[in-house]
Design brief:
This protein has 2 helices and no strands. It is mostly helical. The protein has one domain.
């Protein structure tokens, strides 16, 4: 599928297909960034709440 496509194959595509491929990849990368940032924020929030409830914070 798309994950198996290498640079040599994509360089043989027409310019409009290359741009569409890059646009989709950027979209997936941004979605993954948002997901990872949300996951980090969730883990951080859980840690803060647990430390606060245990009385070991502030």
């Amino acid at each position: 599928m798309m994950a198996e496509i290498d640079a040599k194959t994509t360089s043989e595509w027409p310019a409009d297909m290359q741009e569409e491929f890059r646009r989709r990849r950027r979209g997936r990368n941004r979605a993954m960034l948002i997901f990872l940032m949300a996951l980090c924020a969730l883990v951080y929030a859980v840690a803060v709440v647990k430390l606060f409830e245990a009385g070991k914070m502030w």
